[in-house]
From TrEMBL:
This is Drug resistance transporter, EmrB/QacA subfamily. Residues 26-476 form the Major facilitator superfamily (MFS) profile domain. PROSITE patterns: MFS. One of its GO terms (cellular component) is plasma membrane. Gene3D superfamilies: MFS general substrate transporter like domains, Multidrug resistance protein D. The keyword Cytoplasm does not apply. Its main location: membrane. It comes from Sediminibacillus halophilus. CDD domains: MFS_LmrB_MDR_like. One of its GO terms (molecular function) is transmembrane transporter activity. It is a multi-pass membrane protein. The chain crosses the membrane at residues 26-52, 64-84, 91-110, 122-142, 149-172, 178-199, 211-231, 237-258, 278-304, 310-332, 344-363, 369-395, 416-436, 448-471. Keywords: Cell membrane, Membrane, Transmembrane, Transmembrane helix, Transport. InterPro entries: EmrB-like, MFS, MFS_dom, MFS_trans_sf.
Amino acid sequence: MTDRTTRLEKEREKNMTTTSNKRSTIVTLLLAGAFIAILNQTLMITAIPPIMEEMGISANTGQWLTTVFMLVNGIMIPVSAFLLERFTTRQLFITAMSVFAFGTLVAGLAPNFPFLLLGRVIQSAGAGVMLPLMQTVFLMIFPVNKRGAAMGLIGLVISFAPAIGPALSGWITSHYSWRLLFFIILPIAIIDIVVAIFAMKNVTEVSRPRVDILSIILSSLGFGSLLYGFTSAGNNGWFASLTLISLGVGVLALVLFISRQLRLEHPMLEFRVFKYPIFPLAVMVGMIVFMGLIGVETIIPLYMQNMREFSAFEAGLALLPGALITGFMSPVTGRIFDKVGARWLAIIGLTIITGSSFAFSNLNTSTSFSFITIMYSIRMFGLSMVMMPIATAGLNQLPQRLIPHGAAMDNTMRQIAASVGTAILVTVMTTSASNAENRPEINHPDIYGANMAFIVVSLLSLLGLLLSFFIKNTKPEAEQNQQGDNG
């Protein structure tokens, strides 16, 4: 009996070690894949001018290299919940990374702009699946009491990757060809695929739901048109015919999509996740924070480059310490979350974000590089306390079967928030600057416009702070039910 017990204990220890090793491999693969996928969202920002010169295109046309990536990303994220139920973790990861790698190759070798744009579309089709896949897998393979630390690693990728994009592309394009941006990414993607073929294991539950073509069409049309409408609003104004038509089509398609999902027995995207009270609150706070993150990352380079004549590299460099701080702090705040929950982290973090946002609302012609860098770093320190803890708090409340849908919903809402936020802030900035031209007491209307945009960011952050007081530290639904049954 003693020998049998000892044997069983040894087998259990061996299984635990194997599981831990498998988990480490899966985590490394997903983090590497998601990092290069998210990095590509901002990698083109400072590379657009040399591409415009080489390919003879306008700034508006060149801007599509960034816009189209966000659009296709926004279309793919809602579909990811369905794909996660339809295919195994291994199949989905290898396919998504292969599509991304192929798009990277097409873009790197592109002889003209249409091919370069096609490469970006293919890239983002693969990249759009990566973040929901990573969040879902992490929530599946880590126990509830370790999810904060795991999601902190995701926070590191989400905040660090987009922030180093402009600085990296600014440095490379000023010294080498813009094509090198793609050929740096390609080997990393290929190595990730090769390792995944041998090491990636299946984690998610495959239920093989029926493909509902109409849902996919309505989702793509709805989210795609909405995102394009908000982008158009930032570039052309809210009352431009293109903006109004895009937003109208998007809203109509989304209404039809949502009503269809609520009728289907196995919906493509489950909107019933909003029945769990903390989840919608966490999504709203996450949207506000992400709106501010992307908005500020848009305004600061515009202010530095267009209004103060800093170089693109210097503008990217000003954002880098903030990214490093967030990268360092995200795993730390994840561990704190596991001990104390999201509520106080969110309250303290949003207080810091609000205060530092107000500090940015008084920019002028003598605001130093050091001030911008330090205040942005403080803001990112606050953001690291909110971004992933609040997402984890919302997803933790969902039962296991709804986690893929919750992750897809959370990421979709953040993508929309980024588009809405950028459009609103750019509109506030340009409108305020235009109105200020008729006021003789304002010497620099463009900087005044940037300050007005930062006031809007500050007020949104304050709203997020007020909402964070209603966040409660709850246990997952499945765990509550289990405890009720045991009791």
